[in-house]
Amino acid sequence: MKKDNVELICSISELSSLFKEKTNVQGFLSKVTSTIAAHMNCDSCSIFLLDDISGELVLEATEGLNRDFIGKLRLKPGEGLTGQALMDENIIIESEGLKNPNYKKVLGFGEEVYHSFLAAPILSGLSKIGVLVLEHKIEDFFNINDQMAVKAIASQLATTLENAKLLISLRESRKIENKRITGPLHIRGIASGSGIATGKALILGDSPETVFLEAGDIDYGESIEDFEASLNSTVRQVEDLQEQMEVEHSDVASMIFSTHLLMLSDSSFSGEMANMINGGDSPVDSIIAIVNKYITIFKGSNNPRLQEKVQDIKDLGHRLLRNLRVEEHEEGDYSGQIIVARELLPSELIKITAQNAEGLVLFGGGATAHITILAKSLGVPIVFTDNKQIFDIQENSHLIIDANEGHIFVNPDAGTVRKYKRHNQSDRISEEEISSIGEQTYTADKKRIRLLANINLLSDLKNATLFKAEGIGLYRSEFPFIIRDNFPSEEEQFQIYKKLIERAPGEEMTLRTLDIGGDKILSYMKDIEEENPFLGLRAIRFLLKNEKIFQTQLKAMLRAGAGSNLRIMFPLISSVDDLIAARKVVDKCLKDLKRDGLKYNKKPEIGVMIELPSAVMVIEEICEMADFVSVGTNDLVQYMIGVDRSNDHVAWLYTAQHPAILRALKKIADGAALKKCDVSICGNIAGDEKLIEILIGLGFRKFSMNPAKIPEVQKRIEKIDTVEAAAKAEALLEKGLVSEVKEYFESHGI
């Protein structure tokens, strides 16, 4: 009998299309079971989801069994073959399930006619979501291919089913005062991201308990037909947006709008709105009331995952009301608007920018590393501020935000508007400037220099190619982890890394293993709280302590790198011992992949990111064992001179123009040269046109940077004579005071 399991695994669009039918959450789950049953050609398919409060598995959908048991059949951990599959986190296949001593007979459920049994745990990273169960009347129906197919299907569905679980767990308004500030206002903030944005203010929240309100003197539709048209438009827009995200940002945005689609089809959300309208309330009041009801429920939940969905609810309210407007309007998104909100999760940032927000003003907390880096990759201007006045402005106020310098202008005067209009025009890179970038880079005395790109998202490859990077010197692998609600599976990571390697310019590809900790925290790891996270369980330390996560990532990288020049780099290595331990894990993964008969890169180059003073002191020993080293100067400066670069009180002390930093860089360059180990710089100073001459003088010939920095750095390098650069570097190494170093830079026009 034909089984289309391969087609089902590969077709994520089909799984996404299950949202397109207007149905509630239970209807969606029912469609999932019938679709899987049809593809796998089996007689029965059931979904059990884990109730986080009771700890029991609850039947939520079934095809081929008694549907009266939905919501009623509950299994304790380890109870029956289904409970055992989840407890052991392993797939169970039985040719005759009824004869297994652990089989649990449920009178009236209808399983007695089935023989073959397959139960696959649904896991989202380290979290248990539920179990997918398949059954067939024929004995010995399921084989090893089915096992692999169902495992992949469960992985694909994990995030969506987790969102469905959150909505199922909900089975069960006040208005904001008008804003006061209407006149011009200038607020100084913290720059995060880059660029300048102008637009109308949309306030998404002025307190943790905020309610939703679309303010303004606007005409809205008043009939149930108007509401249904708005709902249908919103569903269509979100479906289109999800499909667009799968193409443009599949690494961090896969199924990212699944909660939106589930809420729109859920009878307790859109259905309640319709009931209120049919009962005499206006569509506007009904939307606002139900959105606020869910915000209150989500905020009041003890489940942190549910709390994180508040922004999703606000997004939906915004779209529904925009689509309800009588006059012509944009496609329900944030076009022409600057969002003012409290701090956002990275996933929320992606959702808002994907909906064409011009820029964002975020209140409190400072510019965390992951938001800052992500904002630059997404090309969205963001300014942070701790000034509460930002929440006292009128909705639809004219805003200009300068994310280069950290300025927020509310209702700016004509002079400010003209000034920033000129800025925007001058910031654009012309086709002539692009065409002038050389394919290769040479100094004035014809010494070869290589310029590579640092990237964070798949979408960054466009700029890496545009600005003619000679390869990828650093791929920060943590963003697929930061964006998701749990650890991405091996298959999810494999697909990301494969696309990355296939689309990248040049031949060199350096994948850095997961670097979390410090100011890059995973929201789903709330049990790790440290007084000083920068010196705690981060980067390679975290991976060596959590070897299962480490192996999953390494296997995905090795598989994706089959047939390519793959380089794997470990962050925050403090000793040769760290490198030995990490290499042992790589060796184990290589053996496992060979055993499993999978295609993989058999000889990846293994490298180290030099970020700690201890690594500098043993640089020759590290270079003896490593295939390459790359200097992460952002952290190296921080750790060498003991300055938290994100702390405004001491940020002025953070400088690469420090004698200790220059001497450390010289030691690294010399140690790598002695051991004939490839060396590069991938921190921010690699793209600093003022420092590039000294770095070349110290002996560095390879630099990895933000792709947009390549043109200006290349122009600077073309004017540098390496002999003169070496003389300047030598002179600087003799300086013992920071002031002397800075004075030398100024006096020599560096």
Automatic annotation (TrEMBL):
EC number of this enzyme: 2.7.3.9
Enzyme class: transferase
InterPro entries: GAF, GAF-like_dom_sf, PEP-util_enz_mobile_dom, PEP-utilizing_PTS_enzyme, PEP_util_C, Phosphohistidine_dom_sf, PTS_EI-like, PTS_EIN
Localization in the cell: Cytoplasm
SMART domains, A to Z: GAF
A Pfam family matched in the record: GAF_2
Positions of the GAF domain: 24-171
Gene Ontology terms: cellular component: cytoplasm
Keyword RNA-binding: no
Cofactor(s) named in the record: Mg(2+)
Keywords, sorted A to Z: Cytoplasm, Kinase, Magnesium, Metal-binding, Phosphotransferase system, Sugar transport, Transferase, Transport
GO terms under biological process: phosphoenolpyruvate-dependent sugar phosphotransferase system
GO molecular function: kinase activity; metal ion binding; phosphoenolpyruvate-protein phosphotransferase activity
Catalytic activity, as annotated: L-histidyl-[protein] + phosphoenolpyruvate = N(pros)-phospho-L-histidyl-[protein] + pyruvate
Superkingdom of the source species: Bacteria
Family: Belongs to the PEP-utilizing enzyme family.
Name used for this protein in its record: phosphoenolpyruvate--protein phosphotransferase
